[in-house]
Amino acid sequence: MILVFYWGLGLLLLVRQSSNLTITKHILLESRKSINGLEISDNLGYMNWHEAVEACKKLGQGWRLPTKDELNMFYENKEEVGGFDYLNYWSSTEVDYVSAWRQYFGSGNQGGSGKYTAIYVRAVRAS
Question: What angle do CA 57, 58, 61 make, to 5 degrees?
Answer without folding.
Answer: 60
